[in-house]
Amino acid sequence: MQQGREEEDDVEEEEEDDEDEGGPERALEKSPFQLTAGDVYDISSLVGRDLLQLSAGPRVPAALARLQFRIVRVLEMLETLVSESSLAEEQLRAERDSLRRELEALRAAGGPGGDHQLSLGPDKMVIDLTDPNRPRFTLQELRDVLQERNQLKAQLLVVQEELQCYKRYILKSAKNEQQLLLSE
Fold it and tell me: What is the fold of 26-110?
């Protein structure tokens, strides 16, 4: 009996200390959205102490009333959290449905040309016009330029060969003229 009374006194002293610091009792007064993990542990501690006091004896009605109040408050907090999360979930669903409808409307408004813009095929490419290294020509234009370059190279080789022939011819005729001049 003496040990039970000492435990009860210890519990009362802890409660007084907690009240001086604002401790566990303040957690029950907070909004459910402001609760922290520490507050949850404080509330659990309060309920646990009240349960111990109920089993301790003489002050059962006061401890029972306190415990009943705390349990009701915890249930109210849980109800608020559940209803708020349900509202948030409903708002998210409504927003998702709204975005889906808007997307469908955009696809429908785009007509046949709109589908090509929304779903790019394997031979389509998205280009950033602000990128200085972006492609500036189509593949067909590049093929045409390369083909023209190759033709010009071939023509250049032909002209260079002709030039070599003319040089040889001029050199031969110059030698022949020199030989004629020397022989005279």
Answer: Methane Monooxygenase Hydroxylase; Chain G, domain 1 (1.20.58)
pLDDT recorded at residue 111: 57
> 156: buried, middle or exposed (CB in 10 Å: 19+, 13-18, 0-12)?
exposed
Q: What is the pLDDT of residue 114?
A: 47
- The DSSP symbol for 144 reads H
Q: Could you write out the three-class secondary structure of 16-83?
A: HHHHHHCHHHHHHHCCHHHCCHHHHHHHHHHHHHHHHHHHHCCCHHHHHHHHHHHHHHHHHHHHHHHH
Sorted by where each begins, the domain ranges of the chain are: 26-110, 137-183
Could you tell me how many helices (H) and strands (E) the chain has, helices first?
Answer: 5, 0
Low-confidence ranges of the chain (pLDDT < 70): 1-22, 57-59, 111-121
Q: Please report the pLDDT score of residue 58 as a whole number.
A: 67
124: Cβ contacts below 8 Å, ≥ 6 apart: 116
∠ CA 28-37-54, nearest 5°, is: 50
